[in-house]
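re: that chain from earlier
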Amino acid sequence: MNKDNLKESLQTWLSNAKRIVVAGVGNPLRRDDFVGMKIVQGLKGKVSENVFLIECETVPESFIQEIEEFGPSHVLVIDAAIIGKSPGSAELVEKLEVTTSAISTHRLPLQLFCKYLKTSIGAQVALLAIQPNETDFGEGLTSEVEKTAEDLTEILVEVLSSEVE
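^ sequence. v structure.
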């Protein structure tokens, strides 16, 4: 993961953001699939009131009403996804029609959830995808993904502090 490039991509994507939802998706019982939730937990108490943090676990669709009521200009979904890179690699995916296959056990496919939000509230929606190393049953992130979670939390604290008015 190139931290500078990812930070720049996030800053560009959030450049005109007014209100942001950051939704962490993942299963705490499937090792690296928990990474999205872990990052959102790390952001708590470190971002402005214009940033709404949601721990979605494996059912992001259960939070659609809360997201709509918050009225975000941007929705950032963070999840483990098979992106064909080395474990712990991260990528900002803005065009969710591409074949990003999230490995979590969502009832509603993540692309459909994101497309619905984009259509229903007119927000910009992107996926911060992190390549998992292991998604077998078990608790705790692998070392590569743990390091990525720490780095991304740090980047997001910086970006969300500077981009949201």
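The beta strands are 20-25, 51-57, 74-82, 90-93, 101-102, 124-130.
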